[in-house]
Write a structure and sequence with these properties.
The protein is 49% helix and 15% strand. By secondary structure, the protein is α/β, with parallel strands linked by helices. The strands form 2 sheets. Strands 9-8-7-6-10-11-12 form a 7-stranded mixed beta sheet, with helices on both faces. The protein has a 5-stranded mixed beta sheet with strand order 1-2-4-3-5. Helix 1 packs antiparallel against helix 2 (18-36) and helix 12 (325-333) runs parallel beside helix 13. The longest helix is centred in the C-terminal third of the chain and has 23 residues, at 391-413. 52% of the residues are buried. The structure holds NADPH dihydro-nicotinamide-adenine-dinucleotide phosphate.
């Protein structure tokens, strides 16, 4: 089957999964050229095998809320592709979670993990459980109930979950605790664990730091210094917080952060002290970003995203499809010359087209946010060796992995006019490695 036919076929067989179709379409649109150079891929129907997950588990999760009422949610684990290593990818808890979203994330994860150079396949999981407004006890009971079903499908050499939206250190710890009780082993079958029980230094920081390291590589290609540049960031969770931390350290000025209710605009820039306030607000009190505006007397815009604010660089770090065509045009009109994605697939196809047409520096999430899963891979290595590395050691490895991903994007994405199309570069580099591994291992 031709690459172009695969998408129509998937749409027919798996209707009502728009995010999944979107992610597949973006990749297929960029790999056609290399695909056509390898007739053996078509003969073995490689693209279709790469697009459809190896298997999907779905299950009911039953738990008791604080009022004593019995609640149910759906739980899922997608094991997408393990050609280059055990399935690896985060768990998302959010009311919007469904098969389409998890299939897009697992598909993307497969290419991202391939780019990291570490031996990890792609997977993703989650639940439509919303942690918002839940007590700590309810979170614990839900995590335990979720793992009671999930545990039999995962293991240190088969499938290693981690965090994602709504799943941070607290949730990973509750899930890992229950997993150990059921599996009766202590081999680290989750990453993003606490430091006291097998976690890696720099894992919480890794996605945000890694995105900034990737941005620095892109800026270097045009001789631009990050110092003094105005940056808009969306989100105020794990990825956003450490993106902002690294940007502040490097002398950039971050003027926005957001949550699902709205965004704050701080014209003086978010400094270290203000970031500490946000970290406490979000990680401890589980408050809303609006409270930052009240605390520091700055603008709060409810129900909106920050892309209309003037900036040099934008770093979307909240969720999928948070930059549409109009947002992209607004960013470009305001002089934005770089977009580096902390979130997964935050830009719609129309927005991506605008960025590429304008030839700005544009890094897709599967390259720019690969730092998180990279340090997860390093956490797995430390667990297997039963030792732990220093923060400096992990940070150095992270920097070198991000530089390597950048290099691969330049290698496969440089156009005849010299413009680096990072979308194409990341997709082709990620694809070729998985494709070769699948070809070598036969028809499975
Ligand atoms: P968190 O749950 O820590 O934070 C998510 C942030 O985004 C919160 O501020 C949240 O606001 C906001 N948000 C979530 N959903 C929406 C929505 N539908 N509309 C507007 N805002 C929303 O998640 P992470 O920081 O871990 O993840 C952020 C992004 O980064 C995701 O796309 C994730 O897939 C990606 N990513 C994460 C990695 C990691 O290591 N954690 C690795 C690679 C990618 P609110 O609190 O109101 O919900």
């Amino acid at each position: 089957m031709k690459a172009s036919e695969v998408l129509d076929n998937l749409k027919r067989r798996f209707p009502n999964e728009p995010e999944y179709h979107q992610a597949v379409s973006e990749v297929l649109g960029t790999i056609e050229e290399v695909y056509n150079e390898h007739p053996e891929f078509e003969k073995s129907n490689l693209i279709e095998r790469l697009c459809i997950p190896d298997r999907i588990f779905s299950f009911r999760v039953t738990w008791m809320d604080d009022k004593g009422q019995i609640q149910t949610n759906m739980g899922y684990r997608i094991q997408h592709n393990n050609a280059i290593g055990p399935y690896k990818g985060g768990i998302r808890f959010h009311a919007s979670v469904n098969l389409s979203i998890l299939k897009f994330l697992a598909f993307e994860q497969t290419f991202k993990n391939s780019l990291t150079t570490l031996p990890m396949g792609g997977g993703k999981g989650g639940s439509d459980f919303s942690p918002r407004g839940k007590s700590n006890a309810e979170i614990m009971r839900f995590c335990q109930a979720f793992v009671m079903e999930l545990w039999r499908h995962i293991g240190p050499d088969t499938d290693v979950p981690a965090g994602d939206i709504g799943v941070g250190g607290r949730e990973v710890a509750y899930m890992y605790g229950m997993y150990k009780k059921l599996a009766r082993e202590n081999t680290g079958t989750f990453t993003g664990k606490g430091l006291e029980f097998g976690g890696s230094l720099i894992r919480p920081e890794a996605t945000g730091y890694g995105n900034v390291y990737f941005l620095l590589q892109m800026l270097k290609t045009r001789g631009i210094d990050i110092k003094g540049k105005v940056v808009t960031v969306s989100g105020s969770g794990n990825v956003a917080q450490y993106t902002v931390e690294k940007l502040i350290t490097l002398g950039a000025k971050v003027v926005t952060m957001s949550d699902s209710d709205g965004y704050i605009y701080d014209p003086d820039g978010i400094d270290r002290e203000k970031l500490d306030y946000i970290m406490e607000l979000k990680n401890l009190y589980r408050g809303r970003i609006r409270e930052y505006a009240e605390q520091y007397g700055v603008k709060y815009v409810p129900g909106a995203r920050p892309w209309g604010e003037k900036c040099d660089i934008a770093m979307p770090s909240a969720t999928q499809n948070e930059i549409n065509g109009d947002d992209a045009r607004a960013l470009l009109a305001n002089g934005c010359f770089a977009v580096s994605e902390g979130a997964n697939m935050p830009s719609t196809p129309e927005a991506i087209e605008e960025f590429l047409k304008a030839k700005i520096l544009y890094a897709p999430g599967k390259a720019a946010n690969a730092g998180g899963v990279s340090v997860s891979g390093l956490e797995m290595t430390q667990n297997a060796q039963k030792l732990s590395w220093s923060a400096e050691e992990v940070d150095e490895k992270l920097k070198s992995i991000m530089a390597n991903i950048h290099e691969q994007c330049v290698k496969y994405g440089t156009q005849p006019d010299g413009y680096v199309n990072y979308v194409k570069g990341a997709n082709v580099a990620g694809f070729m490695k998985v494709a070769r591994a699948m070809m070598a291992q036969g028809i499975l």
